[in-house]
Structure to design on (342 residues):
C-alpha cells in the first residue's frame, strides 16, 4: 500500500511539473538565431513587417536586423557570415562571391510589372530645362548609380539599349549611397537617375526633379531584387532557410495586399504603414510617409518566386561587361530548390 501511495504521489508531482512547464511557455526547441541584412527603403518593407508582426518568431527564428547602405556590402557580409540572409539587387560583387562558392541566390523579391509605376526615370531640373525631357536624349548626359555593377547600372544599360544609345555615351557617376545620388540629382550635379517610386515621387513632389520615363517601358519583368544567403545555409541549413522564406513570404502577402493590389482594409494599411514608418522615412510626418508608401510601392513576388530568365539575363550582362568572370554559371549562382521559378 505504501509503495502504491508513493508511486501515485510521484505521478501527481510529475504531472504538476509538466503543467508548470506548459504554463510558463517554455519552447519545445531553442529559436534559431538569424541576422538579416536590410536597407532602409520601402522595397524592404516585408523585412520590417515580418519582424514587427512576429512572423519570424512564429517560425522559430530569432532575427536581428543589420543595416546597409548598398547591395555590395551586404553581399560581403553574407559571405563572411556577418549576416545570414539578404534581400537586394544582384551586384557584380555578389556574383563574384558565388564563384567562390560562398553565396547563393535562392529567391526573387521586387519586380517591374507592366501596368504598375515601378522605377521612375528622373532628370534634374537643370538638365530638364536644358532639353533632357525623354530617355532618348541621355547621350552625353550623366546618370547616377551607387556602384559599378549595381541595379542602377543595369537599369541604365536597359534604358540605353532600348533607345539605341551606346552606354559608353552616358557618363555613369558612382556615388556609393542612395542618399548621395538624391543630393546630386537635386542639386543638378548629375543629369539623370532611375529609382523606385517611393523616392522618385517624393523628389518630384518636392520640385527637386522631373519624371521623364519609366523603367518598366524598357525592362518589363525585370527582377530588381533577389533573396540570397550563404552557400552553407542553402546547402546545410534547409530548415532555417525554409522557415525564413515562409516568414518573409507572409509579410510579402501583407505588403502586396496593402500597397500594391489595394485589397487590404484601411485599418490594415494604416497599421502596416506605421510599421514601415519606424524604419523608412522616419524623419517625415507619418501621413506623408504613408502617402509615399501607398503611391510608390512596387510588387514583390508572392512566396519570393524567382524570374530565372531575368536574373540569368543580368548574369550574362555582367559577364559581357567584364565585371565578372565568364566561367561563372547559373548553377554556381542560383539555388532553384526553394521557391517557384517563373
Amino acid at each position: 500500500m505504501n509503495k502504491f501511495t508513493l508511486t501515485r504521489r510521484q505521478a501527481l508531482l510529475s504531472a504538476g511539473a509538466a503543467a508548470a512547464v506548459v504554463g510558463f511557455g517554455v519552447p519545445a526547441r531553442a529559436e534559431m538565431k538569424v541576422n538579416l541584412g536590410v536597407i532602409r527603403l520601402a522595397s524592404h518593407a516585408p523585412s520590417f513587417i515580418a519582424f514587427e508582426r512576429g512572423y519570424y518568431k512564429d517560425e522559430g527564428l530569432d532575427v536581428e536586423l543589420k543595416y546597409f547602405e548598398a547591395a555590395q556590402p551586404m553581399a560581403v557580409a553574407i559571405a563572411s557570415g556577418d549576416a545570414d540572409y539578404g534581400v537586394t539587387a544582384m551586384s557584380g560583387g555578389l556574383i563574384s562571391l558565388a564563384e567562390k562558392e560562398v553565396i547563393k541566390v535562392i529567391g526573387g523579391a521586387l519586380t517591374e510589372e507592366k501596368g504598375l509605376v515601378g522605377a521612375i526615370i528622373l532628370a534634374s531640373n537643370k538638365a530638364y530645362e536644358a532639353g533632357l525631357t525623354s530617355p532618348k536624349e541621355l547621350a552625353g548626359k550623366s546618370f547616377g548609380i551607387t556602384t559599378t555593377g549595381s541595379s542602377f547600372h543595369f537599369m541604365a544599360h536597359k534604358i540605353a539599349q532600348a533607345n539605341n544609345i551606346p552606354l559608353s555615351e552616358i557618363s555613369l557617376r558612382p556615388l556609393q549611397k542612395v542618399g548621395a545620388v538624391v543630393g546630386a540629382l537635386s542639386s543638378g550635379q548629375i543629369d539623370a537617375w532611375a529609382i523606385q517610386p517611393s523616392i522618385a515621387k517624393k523628389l518630384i513632389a518636392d520640385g527637386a526633379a522631373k519624371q521623364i520615363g519609366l523603367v518598366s517601358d524598357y525592362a518589363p519583368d525585370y527582377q530588381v531584387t533577389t533573396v540570397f544567403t550563404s552557400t552553407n545555409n542553402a546547402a546545410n541549413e534547409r530548415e532555417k532557410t525554409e522557415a525564413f522564406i515562409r516568414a518573409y513570404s507572409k509579410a510579402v502577402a501583407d505588403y502586396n495586399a496593402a500597397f500594391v493590389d489595394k485589397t487590404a482594409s484601411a485599418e490594415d494599411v494604416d497599421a502596416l504603414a506605421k510599421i514601415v514608418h519606424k524604419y523608412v522615412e522616419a524623419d517625415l510626418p507619418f501621413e506623408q510617409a504613408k502617402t509615399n508608401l501607398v503611391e510608390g510601392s512596387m510588387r514583390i513576388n508572392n512566396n519570393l518566386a524567382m524570374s530565372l530568365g531575368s536574373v540569368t539575363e543580368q548574369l550574362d550582362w555582367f559577364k559581357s561587361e567584364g565585371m565578372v568572370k565568364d566561367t561563372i554559371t547559373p548553377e554556381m549562382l542560383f539555388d532553384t530548390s526553394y521557391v517557384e521559378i517563373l
Notes: The first strand starts at residue 32 and ends at 38. The domain at 32-111+223-333 is CATH 3.40.190.10 (D-Maltodextrin-Binding Protein; domain 2).
